[in-house]
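User: Just a sanity check before I run the rest of the batch. Below are the structure tokens for the first item. I only need the designed sequence back.
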């Protein structure tokens, strides 16, 4: 007679995530990225002293999912709010969770100057090449020729300019300690993204300066694609334009 083995739990919800249903669209990358952030907070034992800052956009929902203190900022102003929180509470761990329409458009000044000052904050920057929450309009990260609700014939760079490569732009500054770009389009890249987020968090913990992890993420709804198709589109188009990998790493950062 075969003996039954005792069931063993091998996959659980991180303590830094709340147990609530998601309101993100099917196939959206935010859920994956939320879990990676939460796992890093747990593994670094940061949950009880973390303050997250979320602005306007799909990222605003993060307050409902992260089991930490969360402050909502005006559109684009998360780095400024995070700066104030970190400077007045230097013992706290402070991170921003921002989308591309927010960080790379109305918040361009805030992210540039926070990076230039080397503020001891960490930023998770989700790039899905569109304004996700407000209807899929062109964002600063929309690819050349990409169709959106506001560029029905595709982004014309002679009119709208070229997309912003944010980490590369910030790399010219002295303040950043860690700048990288990752993606959540396959299992291997999901693992690399988690490692990058943890590295960015350690940059803050070690007092090295500003850190930012850009994460290429699918938006099936606004791209008009099924979830699996959206992952393929990200791989075939976004990864070719936005090269993955570390862009700036401070000396001594593990």
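Assistant: Here's the designed sequence for the first item:
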């Amino acid at each position: 007679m075969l003996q039954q083995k005792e069931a063993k739990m091998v996959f659980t919800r991180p303590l830094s995530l709340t147990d609530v249903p998601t309101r993100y669209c099917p196939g959206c990358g935010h859920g994956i990225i939320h879990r990676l952030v939460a796992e890093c907070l747990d593994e670094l034992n940061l949950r009880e002293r973390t303050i997250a800052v979320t602005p306007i956009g799909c990222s605003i929902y993060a307050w409902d999912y992260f089991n930490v203190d969360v402050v909502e900022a005006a559109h684009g102003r998360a780095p400024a709010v995070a700066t104030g929180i970190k400077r007045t509470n230097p013992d706290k761990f402070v991170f921003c969770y921002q989308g591309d329409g927010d960080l790379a458009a109305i918040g361009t000044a805030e992210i540039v100057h926070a990076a230039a000052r080397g503020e001891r904050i960490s930023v998770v920057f989700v790039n899905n090449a569109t304004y996700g929450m407000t209807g899929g309009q062109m964002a600063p990260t929309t690819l050349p020729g990409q169709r959106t609700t506001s560029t029905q014939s595709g982004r014309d760079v002679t009119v709208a300019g070229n997309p912003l490569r944010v980490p590369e732009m910030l790399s010219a500054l002295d303040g950043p300690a860690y700048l990288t770009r990752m993606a959540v389009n396959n299992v291997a890249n999901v693992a690399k993204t988690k490692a990058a987020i943890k590295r960015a968090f350690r940059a803050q913990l070690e007092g090295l300066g500003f850190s930012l992890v850009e994460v290429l993420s699918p938006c099936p709804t606004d791209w008009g694609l099924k979830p699996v198709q959206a992952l393929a589109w990200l791989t075939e188009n976004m990864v070719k334009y936005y090269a993955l990998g570390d862009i700036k790493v401070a000396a001594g950062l593990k």
